[in-house]
Design a protein that fits this description.
Hydrolyzes ADP-ribose (ADPR) to AMP and ribose 5'-phosphate. This protein is an alpha+beta fold. The chain contains 5 helices and 17 strands. The protein has a domain of 159 residues: Nucleoside Triphosphate Pyrophosphohydrolase, CATH 3.90.79.10. The strands form 6 sheets. Strands 11, 12, 13, 14, 15, 16 and 17 form a 7-stranded mixed β-sheet that branches. Helix 3 crosses helix 4.
């Protein structure tokens, strides 16, 4: 009894000292009673959240807007009830020693059912990382990435969840994002300038994703052995024009217009790691984003837009910084606007 009172007094004094210094404190009482959550307190009412991971519940500050891969550390993993382990900005990098890091492991059931686009679980096969493994490109645009216990490590650091989540491949999952643009014109065909910036307004083909309801650039995964240029054309045709279900005669017309545009010199907007909410410690998105611009407005601009299987809606949208987009797509559009000397 005396020991318990002394222990409580010691806790109280330590808690007071840490609070006076503005430091967080965490006490685990699993030796006294199993499944008891740890507690934490921050001075000045900093934003905190608790993440249950099967070990002690730890609390940490939310990532700041200027931090690395913010969307990759979103509080709840998309399409699930899985809560990420909270990773503060200063603990993102793998070089930072963090023994308390205890992320939950999660791979979606759709991935575990072994569709053709997904890898098996590690243990049942041994992928060759940092190389082209059969038809699957496991190299990263970021350069060689590290491995730990036979699994690849996200080159941008901790995300708060291990496994593959919604992603099919261990390591980099390569995608292609075609950014198809045209000038916004008035009834006479003259370019429309923005009232504030006085610069001409670009429009791009945007789809509303069914999985999250966010607007995005149409795009998709690069098939094994497929050239990125073909992926760009295929994904735009399928997602924005629904070419898989249109009549053969109309499909031929679409193919002709699309092929002509996608054979033109496109502007490579981005090539690298994507801050995507689906990213995990062991699987992440990388993409090549290319802008194909219909300067005259008589190419794909004249084709009727129709949403494909992965898109709920599709439409031409004004390029503007105030328009919210999925993942890193806003950044891609900003680069396009600067390249085309258009309003942003």
């Amino acid at each position: 009894m005396v020991h318990v009172l002394l222990r409580r007094d010691w806790f109280g004094r330590l808690r007071l000292a840490l609070t006076l210094f503005g430091l967080p404190y965490t006490f685990c009482t699993s030796r006294v009673r199993p499944a008891v959550a740890c507690s934490a307190s921050y001075l000045f009412s900093q934003t905190i959240r608790s993440i249950s991971t099967g070990c002690c519940n730890l609390q940490a500050t939310m990532p700041s807007s200027a931090a690395p891969h913010v969307k990759s550390r979103c509080p709840q993993y998309p399409g699930s009830k899985i809560k990420r382990f909270a990773v503060p900005d200063d603990k993102v990098d793998w070089s930072q020693n963090w023994p308390q890091y205890c992320p939950v492991s999660y791979t979606d059931q759709a991935v575990l059912k072994k569709p053709v686009w997904a890898d098996p679980e590690i243990g049942s096969f041994s992928p060759k990382f940092n190389t082209v493994d059969g038809g699957v490109d496991r190299t990263s645009f970021e350069g060689p990435y590290k491995e730990e216990k036979g699994k690849p490590l996200n080159p941008h650091g901790r995300t708060g969840v291990t496994g593959r989540g919604l992603l099919g491949r261990w390591g980099p999952n390569h995608a292609a994002d075609p950014i198809v643009t045209r000038w916004k014109v008035d009834a006479k065909g003259a370019k429309v300038n923005h009232s504030v910036s006085k610069q001409p307004i670009l429009q791009f083909v945007s789809i509303k994703r069914k999985d999250c309801g966010e607007w995005a650039i149409p795009g998709g995964m690069v098939d094994p052995g497929e050239q990125v240029s073909l992926t760009l054309q295929r994904e735009f045709s399928e997602e924005a024009l629904n070419s898989l279900v249109v009549p053969p005669a109309q499909r031929a017309k679409i193919h002709e217009r699309i092929t002509k545009l996608f054979k033109s010199p496109g502007f490579q907007v981005f090539k690298g790691y994507v801050d995507d909410p689906r990213n995990t410690d062991n699987a992440w998105m990388e993409t090549v984003a290319v802008n194909f611009h219909d300067e005259s407005g008589n190419s794909v601009s004249e084709l009727p837009l129709q949403a494909g299987d992965d898109a709920g809606q599709v439409q031409w949208v004004d390029v503007d910084s105030s328009f919210p987009l999925y993942a890193s797509h806003s950044h891609f559009l900003e680069l396009v606007a600067k390249e085309r000397k258009a309003h942003w």
